[in-house]
Amino acid sequence: MTERHDKSGLQVASELAAFIDERALPGTGVETEAFWTGLSKIIHELGPENRELLDRRQRLQEQIDAWHIERRGQPHDHNAYKAFLTDIGYLAPEGPDFEIATSNVDPEIALIPGPQLVVPITNARYALNAANARWGSLYDALYGTDALGSAPPAGGYDKGRGARVVAWARVFLDDAFPVAGLSHADARRYHVRDGALLVDDLPLMQPEKFVGYRGHPKAPDAVLLVNHGLHVELVFDRTHPIGSRDQAGLADIRLESAVSAIMDCEDSVACVDAEDKVLAYANWLGLMRGDLTAEVSKGGDRFTRALSPDLTYAAPDGSPSSVKGRALMLVRNVGHLMTNPAILDRDGEEVFEGLMDAMITTLIAIHDLQRDGGNSVEGSVYVVKPKMHGPEEVAFAVRTFDMVEDALGLPRNTVKIGIMDEERRTSVNLKECIRAAKHRVAFINTGFLDRTGDEIHTSMEAGPFSRKDFIKRKAWIGAYENLNVDIGLECGLMRKAQIGKGMWAMPDMMAAMLDQKIEHPRAGASCAWVPSPTAATLHALHYHKVDVFKVQEKLKAGGRRAHVDGILDIPLATFRRWTSEQIIREVENNAQGILGYVVRWIDQGVGCSKVPDVNDVGLMEDRATCRISAQHIANWLHHGVVSQDQVMVALRKMAEIVDAQNADDPHYRPMAPGFDGIAFQAACDLVFKGRVQPSGYTEPILHQRRLELKRKSLG
Ligand SMILES: CC(=O)SCCNC(=O)CCNC(=O)[C@H](O)C(C)(C)COP(=O)(O)OP(=O)(O)OC[C@H]1O[C@@H](n2cnc3c(N)ncnc32)[C@H](O)[C@@H]1OP(=O)(O)O
Ligand SMILES: O=CC(=O)O
Ligand SMILES: [Mg+2]
Question: Which residues are in the Malate synthase G alpha-beta insertion domain (predicted)?
Fold first, then answer.
């Protein structure tokens, strides 16, 4: 039984109440009474509206289901479908042109295209690493991954591999910072004379790209360069193992990498109650106060990880200068769907978690607003709001933050919103969604993973979908990605807000990422998601190659390339000439991803995992990828592509494989041979009850099953 305190009519779990009263509020200038009264007002005034929005989602889904059921067996009539979606209000009329009016936006959001790292906020060690991933070693990223074609060797330093890394990095320098008549590969000396960088004795072709140095101008310890807004630090040290072998003494090339980082309270975490929410909020507090630390033991060493300081330099003229040492941090709140038992309302009902997140994460960010040299130099708070369906839900988020600002005494529009374009009703009404947040919007982003899950769920009754990999190759996704950029540009996001693209979900496949993710900046994205600091460093190279603002200018001049009609093209399996092996392999692949993810979520509270697929490629799995896999099996089950028995056989077979994959984890509880644990049951629920989950989300089942496990372990 949770111990609770009455706070202005709210029944608040005591650990959350203590956290707010004793840790979050002090130092913000917000009175305890004002906070709880404000939260109570928000919960009681906005709660019913929140519920109504969810009911509307449900009603629309039922209408869409019925439309497809009535027409089963008939050819799809696109025009009739579109007219129907307009009639029921799923497709809203598009209003006149406008430009966003977001103010006080930090340069990392408005002016510096670059990687955006996402990290589960409940893991302090990773969260600190993410904040510090503003800077990363190019040499390490190339040496320590498969980026140059082969996996890193075990054992000591491989000189041949090191030489290849150095040569590759010199080509990067030649591309980004050319010197007329000299390759960086042949350079022997970097020095500063009369405010200019000389490589040997030659200037850069674009001398303005030299922006600072550390140490003596004649033999600097570091040189700072900038290209397309991203900094590059050349580190010189002739005593360093690498620098000592380098003719110019170049020991490393450090790249400005994760320009921004999303501290995630949503799909990469497992927060089901007050205990979990306090962990998430406490880490956010540490980041906003700047005093978060984590004890790390690694490779036999133990050390304390803290936030990196800014980097200080002399500008070319010798005056002191600095560059940010940490990524600009955004916080992802949960969406409008879930409730959480951490707080009960005056009727004893769980409150909407999104309202709680809005108030508490903003309160915590006041610690940053009140200090210099912290996160936002512009005095803004950046909240990423996921899984919103259409303009009315965006408007609701805006009103929520209006009330939060009033309660916390913050100037209007202090809170900026990142709109995840990851539900179909948002994609098809994107312009109106942006309009609804025109004073707050700091980014739009194509969260294609959730978006794929919603694609399947929305049209569940339309027929069987293509195999997962083929869904990605159909017309809808190109239209969705293009229209997101086109509308973002049309609404004036260029140089005011980010236009972002989605996650690279294969964390170990860095060669493939280097090859493919350049398409994101080429498509006009000013940021795109990466799963790790190393991926951020490698993805940064793409923004050195592509001048995103030039691309955006060209795209803007060209107008819209895609239309809602393209987005509405449902990626059903048209020919269905699958062999039974292909069908089983598809189901097993999905089952493996679900089980590998769910077993750690339920049993260990880990919200994001790397899970091998059937080809043994480690995939980043979070709630959104789980949503896709579960919805996919649910869709094939519903249309008789596979039977319930076949799915159960696949789940059991893959559970054994997942058990074997986790054999080295001392905390792991195998699912086989009993298949009667809560985690296995949760995976079965996700699949067999997937069709009736709200929008196909996995949260309700995951939360319920994890709470069940927590209750059980407490006896
Ligand atoms: C659809 C969506 O919503 S996508 C958004 C949600 N997804 C995410 O947030 C992905 C975040 N990424 C992760 O959680 C992890 O990278 C995983 C689970 C994919 C892989 O984790 P692991 O197997 O532990 O990674 P791996 O062993 O390769 O690397 C661990 C090291 O990388 C660091 N690391 C890995 N991911 C991150 C990250 N996202 N941020 C910061 N550091 C990270 C760790 O701190 C650790 O370094 P350390 O020992 O110095 O602390
Ligand atoms: O949140 C991101 C997604 O792809 O979903
Ligand atoms: Mg998502």
Answer: 157-227
Q: Say if ligand 2 is within 6 A of residue 118 CB.
A: no
Q: What is the pLDDT of residues 588-606, one digit of tens each?
A: 999 999 999 999 999 999 9
**Known binding positions for glyoxylate:** 332, 422, 447-450
Q: Which of 134, 254, 332, 451 is catalytic?
A: 332
Distance (Å) from CA 703 to ligand 3 centroid: 17
Separation CA 668–CA 228 (nearest Å): 46
ipTM (interface pTM): 0.99
- Tens of pLDDT, residue by residue over 377-398, are 999 999 999 999 999 999 999 9
Map out the domains of the chain with their CATH numbers.
Answer: 85-134+259-298+305-567 (3.20.20.360), 137-256 (2.170.170.11), 580-713 (1.20.1220.12)
Ligand 2 contact, 449 CB (< 6 A): yes
8-state DSSP, 256: E
| Prior bond of 673 cis (ω within 30°) | yes
Binding residues: 118, 125-126, 268, 305, 332, 422, 447-450, 531
Q: Residue with structure tokens 């290849």? A: 164
Distance 532 CA to ligand 1 centre (A): 5
Judge if the beta carbon of residue 448 lies within 6 A of ligand 2.
Answer: yes
Residue with tokens 């049993």: 603
Separation of first and last alpha carbons in the chain: 12
Beta strands 10-13 and 415-421 are: unpaired
pLDDT in tens, 628-680: 999 999 999 999 999 999 999 999 999 999 999 999 999 999 999 999 999 99
Distance of alpha carbon 32 from alpha carbon 37, whole angstroms:
9
Mean pLDDT of 27-46: 98
Query: 714 pLDDT band (50/70/90 cuts)?
Result: confident
Beta strands in 566-643 (DSSP E): 609-612, 618-621
Which residue(s) pair with 116 in the sheet?
A: 260, 529
- Closest listed residue to residue 385, CA positions, set 340, 415, 427: 415
- State which of 118, 424, 448 you would mutate to test the pocket of ligand 2, scoring each by most atoms of that ligand within 8 A of its C-beta: 448
Angle (nearest 5°) at CA 697 between 614 and 393: 140
Which ligand has an atom closest to residue 268 CA? 1
Task: Give the amino acid at 618.
Answer: G
What is the amino acid identity at position 683? Answer: A
Determine which helix (DSSP H) or strand (DSSP E) holds 314, and give its type and residue range. Answer: strand 311-314
| Count of other CB atoms within 10 angstroms of residue 583 | 17
Q: Please calculate the CA angle 62-66-72 and round it to the nearest 5 degrees.
A: 145
Q: pTM of whole model > 0.80?
A: yes
Determine whether 55 is an active site residue: no
Count of residues in the chain: 715
Does the annotation mark 622 as catalytic?
yes
Ligand 2 test: best mutation among 451, 619, 631, most atoms within 8 Å of CB? 451
